[in-house]
Amino acid sequence: MAKIKKVENIDPSTGKQYHHDQYLYFCKGCGYEHAFALRSDGGNHGFNMDLNNPTVTPSLLQNFTPGRRCHSFIKNGRIQYLNDCWHSLKGQTIDLPDIDNL
Fold it and tell me: What InterPro entries does the record tag this protein with (predicted)?
């Protein structure tokens, strides 16, 4: 099963194509999906393009406010939550959940 999925590349409000591809993964700590954009398409991240065993570089920083910050690395299908995360999984490394089952 896939741990990351590609987002539809159309802006629903305008019907126009986005300038970069986005991908989603489910964060168990926050309880919802997070997105990242690829560096080659104008985004900030590299991705090995393996949806089942993903590696994304550099780290992923979501929700920039300290009270809701989620900061992690995704390597070989696992997510390492860094110590500046707000949630109970900070400092832990777990398998990314299958996103297709959510």
Answer: DUF6527 (IPR045384)
Nearest Cα to Cα of residue 81 among 66, 102, 62: 62
Integer CA distances (angstroms), 46 to 38, 56, 81, 101, 102, in order: 6, 6, 18, 25, 25
In contact, 37 and 22? CB cutoff 8 Å? yes
Sheet holding 70-75, edge to edge: 46-47, 56-62, 70-75, 78-81, 93-95
Q: What is the pLDDT of residues 29-83, one digit of tens each?
A: 999 999 998 866 566 889 999 999 999 999 999 987 778 999 999 999 999 999 9
Say which residues have a Cβ less than 8 Å from residue 24's Cβ, sequence separation at least 6.
Answer: 4, 5, 6, 7, 33, 34, 35, 99
